[in-house]
Design brief:
Blueprint lengths: L7 E10 L6 E11 L4 E5 L6 H8 L7 E5 L14 E4 L11 H11 L4 H14 L15 H14 L4 E5 L7 H18 L2 E6 L2 H4 L4 E6 L2 E3 L17
Parallel strand pairs: 3-7, 3-8, 5-6, 6-7
Antiparallel strand pairs: 1-2, 1-4, 8-9
Helix pairs in contact: 2-3, 2-4, 3-4, 4-5
């Protein structure tokens, strides 16, 4: 059997902020890898290091210890836009652009013609039932709607790795379930890997693999998975 090249490989990768007595260890040196098709929930309380790990895997921050590489993707400067999609908490839409333009922008930056990018953006918005918001500005939509637009923007580029940091944190239970449905289906249909951080058991229970973070320590990596992904409500 031919070994599958990992998308991400963390070798004793850790992150410390500050120096000396005032230093804060956000992530203790961790070993982990993500392969194509992996569906992973990263669970742990707020402040446990989940976001730090996702930022390192996304290439948005650098480890202060160890190494991180992307063997099946390429060098760090080729991760975004497109190959690695990151969905993080907090406002991420550009205020002067419409919802459609926000979703299309990464595609244009990646070299896609504007007309094709807008069509791809419209399709991604329709999948998340956001088509009617396409011409609105970010200030005209709710925080929950903005989070769903961020999901649409991430999926529009057909990434090989999707990273989502508490993507349901600002949504009610029903809309949160729709977002997880869409993320799981997108990963399944494209073969992309999906890594979602959450402290919500109703989210983590839908993933076959579960990593745990506590006080900057990553555990559960390499444990045998005993769960199956629950059937998506979109496939019923």
């Amino acid at each position: 059997m031919t070994a599958v090249t990992p998308l991400v490989l963390c070798a004793a990768a850790g992150r410390t902020y500050g120096h000396g007595a005032g230093a804060t260890v956000a992530l203790a040196p961790a070993d982990c890898h993500v392969h194509p098709g992996d569906l992973i929930a990263l669970i742990g309380p707020s402040g446990s290091g989940k976001s730090t790990l996702l930022h390192l895997i996304a290439g948005l921050d650098s480890p202060t210890h160890g190494q991180i590489s992307w063997p099946a993707i390429g060098p760090r400067d080729e991760l975004q836009p497109g190959r690695v999609a990151a969905i993080f908490q907090g406002p991420s839409l550009l205020a002067p652009l419409t919802v459609r333009e926000n979703v299309a922008l990464p595609l244009v930056l990646d070299g896609m013609r504007d007309r094709h990018a807008r069509a791809r953006a419209a399709n991604a918005l329709d999948v998340l039932a956001l088509g009617e918001l396409a011409d609105k500005l970010p200030e005209e939509i709710s925080g929950g709607q903005a989070q769903r637009v961020a999901v649409a923007r991430a999926l529009a580029g057909n990434p090989v790795l999707i990273l989502a940091d508490e993507p349901t944190g600002q949504l009610d239970r029903a809309n949160g379930a729709v977002v997880i449905d869409v993320l799981l289906l997108a990963a399944e249909h494209s073969g992309a890997a999906l890594l979602v951080s959450t402290h919500d058991a109703t989210v983590s229970d839908r993933f076959p693999t579960c990593w745990r973070m506590h006080s900057g320590q990553l555990t559960g990596v390499g444990d045998a998975a005993h769960r199956s992904v629950k059937e998506s409500s979109w496939s019923r």
